[in-house]
Every structure is written in structure tokens, then in C-alpha cells.
Amino acid sequence: MSVHSTTVKPNTVPRLRARKGGEPVVVLTAYTAPMARLLDPHADVLLVGDSLGMVVYGLPSTVPVTIDMMIAHGAAVVRGAEKALVVIDMPFGTYEEGPEQAFRNAVRILQETGASAVKLEGGAVMADTIAFLTRRGVPVMGHIGLLPQSVNTLGGYAALGTANTDGWDAIVADAVAVADAGAFMIVVEAVSEPLAVRITESVRVPTIGIGASAACDGQVLVIDDMLGMSLRTPKFVKRYAELGGLIGDAAAAYAAEVRSRSFPDERYTYKLKGDNKAPQGEEKKS
What is the pTM (predicted TM-score) of this model? Predict the structure, then answer.
């Protein structure tokens, strides 16, 4: 776990829950300690999303992600975080069987990472599980709307509630059930703006939108998407940088210098002791 400085006040579950209707909550995904350190000053929550299966491991969906993957990356993010609350996704197959299974796996995740909360997908069908966890000291972030772990059932990643209002009541009921069960925050993914407004007005806890408009109480994006490092960019993602191109350019420049033997030159080369030229960053001792 990271060692908190005396000048930084870490975010807590109660403090974030109280942000309902107030200052929007900033959430970003993180999968490594270095990225967590960069994002921590700016984010209220760092979410170790099971999106790492696609972003880090090149998997076709989040379904193959394992609990060991989540724990390894979750522990790394906790080591890099100081202010932000760290939440870790429970991967597919670790909680659907029932409340007892979910509790065992959630406890393992929290104990082995030092994170503060877990996130799980599902609406009313998961209400009993969420209540079981929260009554036993496991903070839960909910997730309704488009459920990536259910991609095989859904047949894709299409946004919900955009053609008409059919099905809106069921999605709103999911949100209410998750909030009433004790979730301190709810991710609302890929729904139409009017539906997001209705969901946000219907629950007592902050809603965190991803493709659900600014009507929500906060927002989350996958860090690789917003930094321009993903091959495909969802409609709801604003690319705040184009690091993918910069990385490619840097690699190309390095490759060209290696092949021409112009790197490393004398600035990056160790000489015999007593040589008048010292490597960059070192001073010759008298």
C-alpha cells in the first residue's frame, strides 16, 4: 500500500457518497503504479477496470479476465495512489453464483490489494449480493446500463434507450435497486441522455457516467482511450491527447538511430576511468 503524506487527505467512501448533486466526481481507470501516480492528483477515484483484459492483455472482451489479474494490477495501483480512492472490478464469474461467493472473492481482492472498494455489474438481480457485501463491510460500486461482462448475451456494445423509451423503467429500477442495496456509487454506461437524467434523479447516490452525458454526478473514462492509445475510440470518448502517435514516432526515431549506429553516442557511453569525457549526468571526479 502507498504511504500517505500528512498533507494529503485521501478520499473515502462516505465523502464520495456525499458528493451526490455536488461537485462532479472524477474517475479514471488505472492499471499500473506509474500511471496511478500520474493520475492520482487529478482523480477522485482510480478504477482498476476489467477493461485491462482488452487494454493490457489484448483480449477480445472482459470475459476472460481472472481474479489474479485484477489483484496483481489492483495492488500496483494502490501502491501508486495517495489521494484517490481505489476501486477494483470483480471479474466475470467471481460473484454471479451468489452472495457467499461474491463475499469470499471481494474479501480476497481487498485483503491482497489494499483497495477500498469493489465494483460489480448488474441491476436488481445483484441487489441481494450487494446488500450482503455492504452489510459485511465491503463497499460496492454498482454498474448498470450496458454491461460489458454480458457482451455474449447482449451480442455487442450498443447503447441503450436511444431509439425510444421502451425498457427505460427496467433500467431505472436496476439503479434504484442497486442504490437501495447499499452501493455508494453507480456507473451508468452507454444510455441516452434523457435516461441518464432520470436515473440520476431517481437514486440517492452519485451516478458516474460513461457514455451517459454530463447529467450524471461524475464521469469515468478508460485512460488509454482518452490518451489516444486505443485502436478504436468509442463515440463517448474525447481524446485529450494522442500519445499513441508520439510513442510510435519515438520508437521510429530510436530504431533509425540504432540502425545507423548514431545511438548510443559518447554522451550515453561509459568510458575507461580517467577519460576526460564522462557519461551524461555524471561529473568527472578530481
Answer: 0.91
